[in-house]
Amino acid sequence: MCGGSMAAVYNLVAKEAFERRAKQAAFEPLIALCAPKGGFPSQTVKSLWTALRAAFASDVEAAVGFASKKNPSDANLAAAAEINDRLCLAAAKGLRDESPAFASAISLLNTSQPDGAAAFANYLDLTPLARAAMIKLPEWVGRMTDDRAAAVRVAYKDAVNLADDAGPRFIEILVANLSEPWLIMRILSAVMDHPAERYMAVSELAMFAEQLLNDIDRKLAQFRAFDPAGGRAAGVAAGEAIHVAAMQIVEFESSIELNREGPWGKRIGQQKQTLAQLAEVRLGQIDKALDAAMPLNVVKFGKGVRGHPKLTDDPNPLALARAEGLMAFFDFTRHFASQSGYGAARAKAAEKIEARLDQYVEDLLEMLHGQQVEALERVRGYLEISASMMEATRGEKAGQIIRRRAAVA
Residue 105 in contact with residue 151, Cβ under 8 Å? Predict the structure, then answer.
């Protein structure tokens, strides 16, 4: 009896899993449009699936059956895609015809935006084309060959053949399914055969270029707001923001023939300049941040003076967090600063940071060897800080070397 009950529970759970998988597969091209930033309610897919189950039960069951297969053959995959396309087109018709089964979905969509049901139906019309395009999407945003560019143009033309205004919707679906949305510029460039700025600016696809330019501004604003007191996490987030901005700029420049005096050409030029300036300002703040986190006393050295570790107090947590934040940003930019326009500034900062840390570490180790201070644990604490900072400068091995030397001192 117990076994029978457990089997029933297992079958129920498995059926629910297959149902979810089938629903996901059917609406896969449009699911990203039902995310918070997608414009349509998150419950759209669930509501449409409920309507389809009521009005097209046999097709839904067939879709669930394909979803339950562990190792589907190519024939199964093709048949499943056909069923899923049919379901999406049936959903589009149900929304437009205001079929009773779709009343809840229609209400949901129309509440989210004016004529939301009609708008979503237009996207559903494109699911067969979008589903096929998504299979090729990794290739299209990889190395664009003549054959791939031709395939992109055919897919776009097929979309426009469905409706004169369907082209931008088709591109919007592709953008939503890209983990790096700025790569859509490669597809736009292929569609328009590497267009000149003036030509693309008056086309139906201009909005995607404008959206990218706006996103670059947002990334730069995010970096400008970077507060190093947030520590390593804040530094990494700032590095990611400026790195994405740099990649977006590269994609924009390589996809469109820009005019320096054109609106987009000027804007991209200003963004590049702003990016480099913002990065250089942050790099210039590292010296003072290290001085605050790893303070120095000025002592005579020969005929001159130099800094020597000041160990009267424990490390200041706020100063340390600020230094860690800036150094995390410094470390994150190691491999792309040169391509982003501030490589020389970073190299100059690296030279100063390394010299400063090298001397600081040697002075601390000398104190340990000579037992010159009472607060030996404080010395070791500052050595650990030095190791962490050196990792951000030269890599993990450099920090490990400092820790080994401190352990045997």
Answer: no
pLDDT the model gives residue 32: 95
Q: Is this structure's pTM higher than 0.90?
A: no
Is-contact 98 44, C-beta < 8 A? no
Q: What's the one-letter identity of residue 44?
A: T
The backbone torsions φ and ψ at residue 397, rounded to the nearest 5 degrees and listed phi first, read -60, -35
Residue 404's Cα: distance from chain center in Å?
Answer: 37
Strand partners, 299: 306
Q: Taking CA 378 as the corner, what is the angle to CA 374 and CA 379, rounded to the nearest 5 degrees?
A: 85
Nearest to 119 by CA among 32, 39, 29: 39
Q: Rounded to whole angstroms, how far apart are CA atoms 134 and 28?
A: 10
> Are the beta carbons of 275 and 224 closer than 8 angstroms?
no
Q: Would you state the pLDDT for residue 1?
A: 44
Query: For position 371, what pLDDT does the model report?
Result: 66
Distance between CA atoms of residues 127 and 374, nearest Å: 73
